[in-house]
Amino acid sequence: MALNIEQGSTSHSAYDLRSHMSDAIETHTLAILVENEPGVLARVIGLFSGRGYNIESLTVAEVDHGGHRSRITIVTSGTPQVINQIKMQLGRMVPVHEVADLTVEGPFVSRELALIKVVAKGEHRVEALRIAEIFRCNVVDSTLESFVFELTGMPDKIDAFTELMRPLGEVKLARTGVAAIARGL
Amino acid sequence: MSEQMTGAKMIVEALKEQGVDTVFGYPGGAVLPIYDEIFQQNAIRHILVRHEQGAVHAAEGYARSTGKPGVVLVTSGPGATNAVTGLTDALMDSIPIVCLTGQVPTFMIGSDAFQEADTVGITRPCTKMNWLVKETDRLADTIHQAFHIATEGRPGPVLVDIPKDVQFATGQYTTKPKAKVSHYQPKVKGEIETITDLVHAMEKAERPVFYTGGGVINSGDKASTLLRELVEATGFPITSTLMGLGAYPASGDKWIGMLGMHGTYEANLAMHGCDLMINVGARFDDRITGRIADFSPNSRKAHIDIDPSSINKVIHADFPIIGDVGHVLEDILKVWKARGRKTNATGVQTWWTQIEAWKAVRCLNYTQEGKTIKPQYALERLEALTKHRKDRYICTEVGQHQMWAAQFLGFDNPNRWMTSGGLGTMGYGFPASVGVQVAHPEALVINVAGEASWLMNMQEMGTAVQYRLPVKQFILNNERLGMVRQWQELLHGERYSESWSEALPDFVKLAEAFGAKGILCSDPDDLDDAIMEMLNYEGPVIFDCLVEKHENCFPMIPSGKAHNEMLLGEAETQGVIGDAGGVLV
């Protein structure tokens, strides 16, 4: 009897169990250390659009002022072969110093920050505040007819919160995209 | 030499320091200060082309025939946009090009100034790297970096965009040894474990084949020498892509011809039937693989490439080796020799018997009869009359003539074959031949062309005449877009939509108008004399060879088909390409 081994992530196995031509779509979080100079972000984004890769989320900021380095965090999805190509194509870019696939390399923390404006009156306004407390939001702005909540967490937590807010009033949303880093040393 | 100078002077100094002897360019408003500096020196020769696309292709021809980077200098706006096709061509074929473009002054960037274009934005996807230099102090450093990146690793085009005020301003010159050390240092040595595994597989292989590509040429002469040594020592058959012709000599007895869509029967069937495929510096292009699902189904595959992203991109590699072809071949030879130079001699012998049987099909056969010149015949005669010339360089345009040239001309040395492979740029060959002739003034440089491709950059006739470049334009004139016509015949119900030229120039008069020589030949009996007349003439020649108008290029692997589904001739062509294949190009 053939062993029924689920194909996909390898982060908990010493062996690569993935078929090299698997059709399964995987989501990976990549942390890319780049030279902080004009046009680098455009080059990285151009790679994704030019070769038809997906971007689910992208964040970028300078992380080493003296060394002129920025970290780009990209959440992308595709078959294992496509993910591998994305990493290789990023790695060969001249201004790219390092490409880390956090999804494969071990446990990692990823967080996103969202600012959520909810316009509501009366009972709805109270309910919004109550739910916000459950989600441990901060209230960063308030009028008699609206709140702006600040929420940090995994993207699905922010999704869940905004879905709960929608029936209560008009929702306006600003999200930063995912920042991620490996756990441990 | 750490001194103050203007940006324009820095450019010339940096080029000199990089050993540049020739620049292909076209002046304009935004590069006038640089042209002023060029005027006042003699170390660097400037070749004035007639169109910026021609400048890049000429630089490609120069680069490919010398192994040195080609340098281009053009102005802002239209100068830069005209260079885009050439840059893309160089990116696809991994040709080192340094393109310097002028830009409007920094304080006018973004104002829609006269001849302003977002050059770094437009050229970002078609360069390996590009820069906009806003400070004169950083100009020399950037140019040194540009040369490093164009030539290191997998070569490619780079572009430096230089605003006019940066050219006028004075700044600190940075010498090459003082330039910032780039972190871009691709790995050249392959992993010895994988190389050893490959050698084990080579020792046991019954049906091995070497599949080589442009990477061998780019790696340098040493790589070709090592490849020859390895092939001769192991006795394995060798085929090559279009870009790799000449790395192993066509006259060598292990040579089984080019592979791919119009490759030989024996090469494609050897690829299909092999049990060990050793890819040396090629990239499993779709012209090579045909239908992926049926590509060489029973082989283990080694892939040697300096670009990690080439490996496992299209075809899974059982022996992935990231490194420079020259270094890796050296290590393979070392390990193989140290282990006692073993091969599976009986297996390989049987394999060769099979290959000889495929060769006996004589897939390149054609019939020359009557008073019309077959294009294959014209090339066979050209080959017969020129192959003794050790200094022969061949360029091509793109289309049927290109494939016939690859099939019927033999290359015994690398860097002698300049063609647009990846991008398939019609109009590449003529300016490329200009660049080759500039680099090799005494050599015999022939551009095998189709009349339609040739017309795309015919203005470079002015360049050829001005610099007395005796380039021979060998035009196989069928008054058709031959390859388009062939596909329309096979795939689109013989509806020849817009694939023939209703109004062609008189090429002899055209040559004369430019101050060159024109030769017309339409009779097979006159062909040899006419070719000799072309070869003996000391200036540029346009050779208008009127050939059979409806000849198709065979063998052919129709799109969407596998290697063993190759068509050998006219009789097999009815309804061969299904709907699924029809959507492929």
Helix content of chain B: 25-40%
Low-confidence runs of chain B = none
**Count of DSSP E strands of chain A?**
8
Q: Which oligomeric form is depicted?
A: heterodimer
- Number-wise, the strands of chain B total 20
Order of helices and strands of chain A: EHEEHEHEHEEHE
The helical percent of chain A reads: 25-40%
Biggest interface, chains and residue tallies: A-B, 18 and 21 residues
N- and C-termini, Cα separation of chain A: 41 Å
- Secondary structure tally, helices of chain B: 24
Order of neighbouring strands in the sheet with most strands of chain A = 2-3-1-4
Task: State which percent range the strand residues of chain A make up.
Answer: 35-45%
Largest sheet of chain A: 4 strands, antiparallel
Rg of chain A, alpha carbons: 20 Å
Major pleated sheet of chain B? 6 strands, parallel
In what range is the share of β-strand residues of chain B? Answer: 15-25%
Q: Mean pLDDT of chain A, nearest integer? A: 90
Q: What gross morphology of chain A would you assign?
A: elongated
Structure class of chain A: alpha+beta
Low-confidence stretches of chain A: 7-13
Radius of gyration of chain B: 24 Å
Key terms:
heterodimer; A: 185 residues; alpha+beta; 5 helices; 39% strand; B: 585 residues; alpha/beta; 6-stranded parallel sheet; 24 helices; 20 strands
Topology:
The complex is a heterodimer of chains A (185) and B (585).
Chain A (H helix, E strand, L loop, with lengths): L25 E10 L4 H11 L6 E8 L4 E10 L1 H12 L4 E6 H4 L2 E12 L2 H13 L3 E6 L2 E8 L1 H11 L4 E13 L3
Antiparallel strand pairs in A: 1-3, 1-4, 2-3, 5-7, 5-8, 6-7
Chain B lengths: L3 E3 H11 L4 E4 L6 H8 L5 E4 L3 H15 L3 E5 L3 H5 L1 H9 L4 E7 L15 H5 L5 E4 L6 H13 L5 E7 H5 L1 E3 L19 H13 L3 E5 L1 H6 L1 H14 L3 E3 L14 E4 L6 H9 L2 E5 L5 H4 L10 E6 L13 E4 L2 H14 L6 H15 L15 H12 L5 E5 L3 H9 L8 E2 L10 H11 L4 E7 H6 L4 H6 L5 E6 L4 H10 L15 H8 L2 E5 L5 H10 L4 E6 L32 H4 L3
Parallel strand pairs in B: 2-3, 2-4, 4-5, 5-7, 6-7, 9-10, 9-12, 10-11, 12-13, 13-14, 15-16, 15-17, 17-18, 18-20, 19-20
Antiparallel strand pairs in B: 1-8
Helix pairs in contact in B: 1-2, 1-7, 3-5, 3-18, 9-14, 11-14, 12-15, 16-17, 16-23
